[in-house]
């Protein structure tokens, strides 16, 4: 297995009997491939998935600062990812889709009305996207998800513990057919381009803070790469910004335990950075979470320059605004995709 090329490693296999991921064997070793494994290439239909068992955690909300209880439960095929507020009477399901995003200023927020909203969903959505989970019901006891350590690592761990199972109905990815681009201030942009398979991403950031500066990172997404290279990368903030938020009653749960805080050239966290370019890696993690709101896996290349939650959401809206931009890849009679309300 050590002799495999990066291209040969792009495909991963899911063993439905014990939910253990193994690397794909190249053709020369195909004869030794175990039976009953589902090749997940990200192009063409595959069986839908959900978590094998419910799993829960408790953590403080980044802005409320109060303990939030979260449970991820299995869901049936075509349910999709959806949130429900257990602290609200007669709560409705909140679909985790781009067309239900209601705010992107401080995080990605989904909702169905002014009261039934869930904020800071991007880190969990990134883990769900990278782990190939299509269907889940996420119960949350407040207006935001637990911040945990400010990355996706603990959500990724929860999903590993819960396991993953295949369902009876197939689902095909959304294949991007032509370049779709949205632009923001100061040259920022986000773009989707056609790709032969799967989802690859690249991101460049450029911050005036000397501790951050200009950084770039690229990744062809699969579960192993996400876990090894992105999942543990934390959100970040400048010291002046978090102090301003706290003065107006926000970021009450923010601390050095769940965010990187920078001040000029200094990183204030005692343990320093987990990667020298942890900042741009986290922005790529955010993009994976935001693109996970497409309603189906994407077969595309994503390119972002100073892109954040707002541009990422605008990009999905632009993609699905024109049917000529996309198609359902490898559609069969049993393949289904739901990308809009």
What low-confidence regions span 5 or more consecutive residues with pLDDT below 50?
1-41, 332-336
State the separation between the terminal residues, measured CA to CA. 44 Å
CATH evolutionary superfamily of the largest domain: lpxc deacetylase, domain 2
The amount of beta strand, in percent, is: 25-35%
Q: What is the radius of gyration computed over CA atoms, rounded to a whole number of angstroms?
A: 19 Å
Described by strand count, sense and barrel closure, the largest sheet is: 7 strands, mixed
Structural class: alpha+beta
Overview of this protein structure:
There is one protein chain. Helix 2 packs across helix 6 (278-291) and helix 6 (278-291) runs parallel beside helix 7 (309-321). Strands 14, 15, 16, 17, 18, 22 and 23 form a 7-stranded mixed sheet that branches. Strands 5-6-12-7-8 form a 5-stranded mixed sheet, with helices on one face. It has a 3-stranded antiparallel sheet with strand order 2-1-3, with no helix packed on it. The protein is globular and about 50 Å long. The chain has 2 domains: 6-40, no CATH class; 49-336, lpxc deacetylase, domain 1 (2-Layer Sandwich). Helices cover 20% and strands 32% of the residues. The model is unreliable at 1-41 and 332-336 (pLDDT under 50). With 341 residues, it is of the alpha+beta class. Its cofactor is Zn(2+). One of its GO terms (molecular function) is UDP-3-O-acyl-N-acetylglucosamine deacetylase activity. It holds the Pfam family LpxC. Belongs to the LpxC family.
